[in-house]
Write a structure and sequence with these properties.
The complex is a heterodimer of chains A (423) and B (160). Chain A is an alpha/beta fold. Chain A is built from 17 helices and 9 strands. Chain A has 3 domains: 227 residues, 3-Layer(aba) Sandwich (Rossmann fold); 84 residues, Roll (Ubiquitin-like (UB roll)); 91 residues, de novo design (two linked rop proteins) (Up-down Bundle), CATH 1.20.1440. In chain A, the strands form 2 sheets. A 5-stranded mixed sheet of chain A has the order 6-5-9-7-8, with helices on both faces. In chain A, strands 3-2-1-4 form a 4-stranded parallel sheet, with helices on both faces. Chain B is an alpha+beta fold. In chain B, 42% of the residues lie in helices and 11% in strands. In chain B, helix 1 packs antiparallel against helix 2 and helix 3 packs across helix 4. Classes of the chains: A alpha/beta (423), B alpha+beta (160).
């Protein structure tokens, strides 16, 4: 089993530039930049089937193809790496940044060359103090070695990278809100269209890709689309950093072939549940995904296989709900997060999420009524897809909607008995 | 803590450098707010007004940004800020007990500062250390796998 993303992984003590180069790093940059047509790189990445790893899953190659040509749109062009990882239960980007920052930089240089961007920005949450330090060190090393800056390795290609430490707000991970943040505005999302590819940062053509997405690029360019496709199992392509947290024996990140069943991740790699706990359900990819019931644990972990069952894989970092945690309180905690992090721009999200949180807290405290249950159900419609400006509120509703269906008896019992039987 | 001095000449020069590196002045606002806060602990109204002028923004425009972010403080905080993660995995694995412990030991709830001004407790959303939950950011240092005993050690509190 070939696992390219973690090949040089050194958690907390990553390879420096010399070590990374000894392991073959930046060879594909040398072989490609200025020697291969940029469009050829876009074609390879498109053909590989690589999809966005931030949670959306959209084809990376197709995203790149929407960049206008340099001839059509002369002037600055940006390639932004989204390292604003703040989705509850998600820690894969930190794992990649702390374990191998040069892998990200190499992918970024190649991606920027493919779309002919001249300015890169790694947008990283300010709480990631250590990853910020490691990234800045890697950027300085790369710059000193002529891998960044003007005329990279004598290729004629110019590309500079800044590491932007943000000041902490979930919505900044939404790509158009990120553009507002970088322009020094309150980070609310923008209407799409126009897409960032045509009218992005300061109105210029801009790509925004997730950390893990970009980490795949050098491997795909080096070994080709067919090689990448061969890494998946059960008809899927590539590998992914899957994560598990909760009351499992070995929480952590595991690079596995896409298409690996969720059960293998939890039972084999994460070692199963801690003694005395049983798995009730799983949020498969962060707080914005719906509950996957225990009976569906054999689902192959891929965007397509999850969609076929009406689920979303999201960030592929699973949160395990156990039988000694109250599902109502669990969902209330999730809604508290979304209510706090709503940017406040559109009314359904700004007002609806605190309402959902308060109602859940009342039910959990034993003060809920049947009308509250009906209200929660109604809110999942009012805050659902198509009703709000961006995907934050619909993401919040995923766990509430599936939770009301899956744990309906527990909700009803809280209301009927006027107490939570877990506390 | 209530009076905050205006920026020094050296600080204004540092701000000017950050502004000069930006595509346009306001694009440097997060960097500038973080820089000033690192030296003054929080951004009071007078500082906000002064910084806004350097960024060619109105005070209201800069406050829209300053009040938006979890890591920018518009009110006084203690010498050290303890960000305790209250997102779902940390919540499941013990954050409420840690919060109760801090209240017992130090008398502070989220949003409060100890009487001696040394520590402010703030809640924070997922710190991305769910594999080591429960986690906190103490100043600039991340700590995971916390329990009450470890918390006492990290805060140099005598064992309870």
């Amino acid at each position: 089993m070939e696992l390219p993303l973690t090949r040089n992984m050194r958690p907390g003590a990553p390879l420096d530039l010399a070590g990374y180069r000894r392991a073959g790093g930046y060879e594909v940059v040398r072989a490609t930049i200025g020697k291969v047509a940029p469009q050829a790189l876009i074609d390879i990445v498109t053909d590989s089937g690589l999809g966005g790893r931030g949670g959306g899953g959209f084809s990376t190659g197709r995203k790149w193809q929407a960049m206008p040509s340099v001839a059509a749109r002369p002037g600055p062009r940006y390639f932004i790496v989204n390292a604003d990882e703040m989705e509850p239960g998600t820690f894969k980007d930190r794992f990649l940044l702390e374990g191998d920052p040069h892998q990200l930089l190499e992918g970024l240089i190649l991606g920027a060359y493919a779309v002919q961007a001249d300015h890169g920005i790694i947008f990283i949450r300010g709480e990631y103090v250590e990853p910020i330090r490691l990234l800045r060190r890697a950027v300085a090393q790369a710059r000193d070695a002529g891998l960044l800056g003007e005329n990279i390795l004598g290729s004629g290609f110019d590309f500079e990278v800044d590491v932007h430490a943000s000041a902490g707000r979930y919505i900044c991970g939404e790509e158009t809100a990120m553009l507002n943040a970088l322009e020094g505005r309150r980070a609310i999302p923008r209407a799409k269209p126009p897409l960032p590819q045509t009218h992005g940062l300061f109105g210029s053509p801009t790509i925004v890709n997730n950390v893990e997405t970009v980490c795949n690029i050098s491997h795909i360019i080096a070994h080709g689309a067919d090689w990448y496709k061969s890494l998946g199992v059960n008809g899927e392509v590539g590998t992914r950093i899957f994560g598990v947290s909760g009351r499992v024996k070995n929480p952590g990140c595991y690079e596995l072939p896409i298409g690996t069943p969720m059960r293998a991740l939890i039972e084999d790699h994460a070692g199963g549940m801690r003694s005395g706990y049983a798995l009730t359900a799983v949020l498969p990819g962060g707080a914005s995904t719906g509950f996957l019931p225990a009976r569906d644990l054999d689902t192959p972990m891929s965007v397509g296989a999850f969609a076929a069952l009406g689920h979303r894989l999201g960030t592929a970092n699973a949160i395990v709900l156990d039988d000694r945690t109250c599902p109502v309180a669990f969902i209330a905690n999730l809604q508290q997060f979304f209510a706090q992090e709503s940017c406040g721009w559109c009314a359904p999200c700004r007002d609806g999420l605190p309402w959902a949180e308060r109602t859940l807290r009342a039910i959990e405290a034993g003060d809920g009524t049947d009308a509250d249950l009906a209200l929660l159900s109604e809110l999942t419609g009012h805050l659902g897809p198509g009703r709000t400006f961006c995907a934050l509120a619909p993401g919040a509703m995923a766990s509430l909607q599936t939770g009301l269906a899956m744990f309906g008896d527990e909700f009803a019992r809280h209301v009927r008995t006027g107490r939570c039987s877990w506390h | 803590m209530s009076t905050v001095d205006a920026l020094t000449a050296a600080e204004r020069a540092a701000v000017s450098d950050l502004v000069a590196q930006a595509h346009e002045p306001r694009a440097a606002c997060t960097d500038v707010l973080r820089y000033v806060q690192a030296r003054r602990r929080f951004i009071d109204d007078a500082l906000l007004g002064e910084i806004a002028g350097l960024l060619d923004m109105s005070t209201a425009e800069l406050d829209e940004v300053a009040t938006f972010y979890n890591l920018i403080f518009r009110r006084p905080v203690g010498e050290t800020v303890l960000f305790l993660c209250n997102s779902v995995t940390c919540w499941m694995l013990g954050q409420p007990a840690l919060q109760a412990h801090l209240h017992r030991r130090l008398g502070i709830a989220p949003g409060e500062t100890t009487a001696d001004g040394r520590l402010t407790l703030l809640p924070i959303v997922c710190l991305g250390h769910c594999d080591h939950a429960p986690a906190m950011l103490l100043g600039e240092a991340l700590h995971g796998d916390l329990d009450c005993h470890r918390l006492d050690e990290l805060l140099s509190l005598a064992p309870a």
